[in-house]
Every structure is written in structure tokens, then in C-alpha cells.
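Q: Please design a sequence for this.
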């Protein structure tokens, strides 16, 4: 097990040609689907509203406000989805043992499926992917994403706070999702994830660097480190897909550098695994 450590990387991410083509085709399909009925200015306005919901109106997020309205859904799919893909891909390529394929990859709060697809497509052989989200639109989008990446994937609607997780061995991912859980659900999730790791599953939690999004991070970090895991901060540059870069500029953001932080708990290959 890797000792707890903190690392900061400044790297350029490049995708291998096969993933790069699939990624480009996925982005093209997202553009065709989400810019079919909305104009670019409508989506960029919605992106600003979505960002303000994440930052200034965080109390509305747990009621599902972020994905209410076609504009915000399009903005999420076209902008945050690809950014989350690139970040998770980078994290998984950087963490030792993360690309070893699990039998099943469970993506909690899967959204459009981007983060789960990033991890699954980085594995040496692709695992079965199970996406779980409470939002029906997200479930449909995630299913489409799994198809677009040629993954054996299925998304279903459920509340991650109560969902019965599939039997191990599995890899469990929660990208940008734990911060949306109400406090009691979040508190209950931490021992569940630690328990899965103790039974041999690999667990990856990803959140933004901004402290106000996850004021609980330190507590989770200490718990993960006590369980033999590690915490990392990530900062890297990559070429953004043209539509992401265009939305970035139009909304007045600057994501030329992609950042995030992660918690990772893993048992080495051949370690004990069990079901829950
Ligand atoms: C910011 S999005 C992140 C989506 C995806 N993981 C990614 O990285 O792109 C958070 C997702 O968590 C979902 N979510 C929030 N609370 C949830 C809950 N209690 N049960 C299931 N899904 C939830 C939301 O519907 C949303 O799709």
C-alpha cells in the first residue's frame, strides 16, 4: 500500500491515438446532440448560470438544481463532462495500479458518464461499468457515453446514499459527486468506501481544489490515509477540445490548466478481495 503523500504535478496530458479518436468522436456527438436545439450563446449563458449554481448557490445543488433546464444540462455535458474526463484520465494514468482493470467499475454520481469512461478506457482491458445517478437525463447521457467509448456499461437511476453496491472485486469512483451529498449521507458514505477498500476494492474520490466545495476534505483525507491511502493534488495542461476552449473563453473562465484533487485507496494486485 502506498504511504500517504501529497504531490503536485505540472504535466501535459496526451491521449494515445485510439483513445484520442474515440474522445474526439464523443465530443463531436455531444456537440451534435446538445448544440442541435440550442445556440452557442444560449449554452455559454447557461454555463455561467451553472457555474454560479456550483459556486454561489451551492445550497440548491442537493435539490438537483445544477441539471435543471436544457441549457445547463447542455453546458454540463459539453463543458464539465470533457474536463472531468481529462482530469480523471490524468489521475488514473498517474496513480500506481489504477490502470489495472477491475472486473467492475462503479461510478457513483456518474453524471454524463465522463469520469467512469475516462477510468475504464485507461485500463489495459476494459471493465464492466455501472453508473449510478439520481438524475434521469444523466443516466441516459451516461449510457450513451458508454456506447460511444465501446464500453460494456450500464447506467441506472438510484440514490448513491442508499444504493446497494455490486459485489467486489470492484473499483469505486466518485468524481465531483460527494460534494453534492447532504452532510448525513456524505458522512455515511466515508466508512462504506473505506470498508470496500479494506475488502480489496480500489476507491477513487475526485473533487475540485476549491476548499469551499469540499470543507469535509481534510476529514476524508485523514480517514483515507489511516486506511493506507493517499491524497494528491493535480495541476496539468492539455489541449482542450475546441468546443470546450470556446465555451471557456465565452464564459470568461480559464481552464487551460486543469486542476483537482483525489483520494485513492488501493490494495496491491493479488491482495485480498471480497464481496460486500
Ligand atoms: C457534478 S456532477 C459529476 C458527474 C460525474 N461524476 C463527472 O465527474 O462528470 C454530480 C452528479 O452527482 C449526481 N448526484 C448528486 N447527488 C446524488 C445522489 N444522492 N444520488 C445519485 N446521484 C447524485 C448528480 O445528479 C450529478 O449527475
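A: Design:
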Amino acid at each position: 500500500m502506498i504511504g500517504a503523500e501529497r504531490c503536485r504535478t505540472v504535466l501535459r496530458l496526451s491521449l494515445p491515438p485510439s483513445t484520442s479518436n474515440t474522445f474526439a468522436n464523443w465530443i463531436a456527438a455531444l456537440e451534435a446532440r446538445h448544440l442541435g436545439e440550442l445556440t452557442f450563446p444560449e449554452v455559454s449563458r447557461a454555463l455561467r448560470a451553472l457555474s454560479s449554481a456550483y459556486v454561489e448557490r451551492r445550497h440548491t445543488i442537493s435539490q438537483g438544481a445544477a441539471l435543471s433546464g436544457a441549457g445547463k444540462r447542455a453546458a454540463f455535458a459539453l463543458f464539465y463532462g470533457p474536463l472531468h474526463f481529462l482530469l480523471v484520465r490524468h489521475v488514473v494514468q498517474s496513480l500506481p495500479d489504477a490502470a489495472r482493470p477491475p472486473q467492475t467499475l462503479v461510478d457513483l454520481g456518474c453524471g454524463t458518464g465522463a469520469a467512469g469512461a475516462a477510468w475504464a478506457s485507461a485500463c489495459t482491458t476494459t471493465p464492466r461499468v455501472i453508473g449510478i445517478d439520481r438524475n434521469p437525463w444523466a443516466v441516459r447521457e451516461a449510457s450513451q457515453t458508454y456506447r460511444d467509448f465501446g464500453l460494456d456499461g450500464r447506467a441506472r437511476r438510484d440514490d448513491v446514499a442508499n444504493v446497494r453496491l455490486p459485489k467486489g472485486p470492484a473499483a469505486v469512483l466518485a468524481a465531483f459527486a460527494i460534494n453534492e451529498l447532504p452532510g448525513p449521507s456524505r458522512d455515511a458514505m466515508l466508512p462504506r468506501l473505506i470498508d470496500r477498500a479494506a475488502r480489496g476494492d480500489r476507491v477513487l474520490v475526485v473533487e475540485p481544489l476549491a476548499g469551499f466545495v469540499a470543507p469535509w476534505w481534510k476529514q476524508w483525507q485523514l480517514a483515507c490515509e489511516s486506511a493506507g491511502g493517499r491524497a494528491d493534488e493535480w495541476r496539468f495542461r492539455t489541449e482542450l477540445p475546441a468546443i470546450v476552449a470556446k465555451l471557456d473563453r465565452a464564459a470568461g473562465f480559464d481552464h487551460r490548466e486543469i486542476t483537482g484533487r483525489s483520494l485513492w485507496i488501493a490494495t496491491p494486485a493479488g491482495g485480498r478481495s471480497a464481496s460486500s
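Q: Thanks. Anything notable?
A: The pocket of S-adenosylmethionine is lined by residues 67, 80-81, 84, 109-112, 114-115, 132-135, 138, 159-161, 175-177, 180-181 (CB under 6 Å). The chain has a mean pLDDT of 90.
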